[in-house]
């Protein structure tokens, strides 16, 4: 399975799979990670790629002891559905 990669030069997390790369644009201010936009190419939609990407983003935030504020509607809805990350809500 692919790994979520932090690409700070582009300000995004990336998850590459055979059909393309899903991304989560972000910015960090202090100890807060703002998820600005999550995008999955059409070929990856409906395959759970964006959810795997979000899990990797949230696990990274936990490792770095960052609070998370989702700006993106998809990210906000995903976090609401995953109580195991409620402690990261900023």
TrEMBL record:
This is Acetyltransferase-like protein. Keywords: Transferase. It comes from Asticcacaulis biprosthecium C19. Gene3D superfamilies: 3.40.630.30. Pfam families: Acetyltransf_CG. Residues 1-90, 5-90 form the N-acetyltransferase domain. The lineage of its organism: Bacteria, Pseudomonadati, Pseudomonadota, Alphaproteobacteria, Caulobacterales. PANTHER family: BSR4717 PROTEIN, PROTEIN NATD1. GO terms for molecular function: acyltransferase activity, transferring groups other than amino-acyl groups.
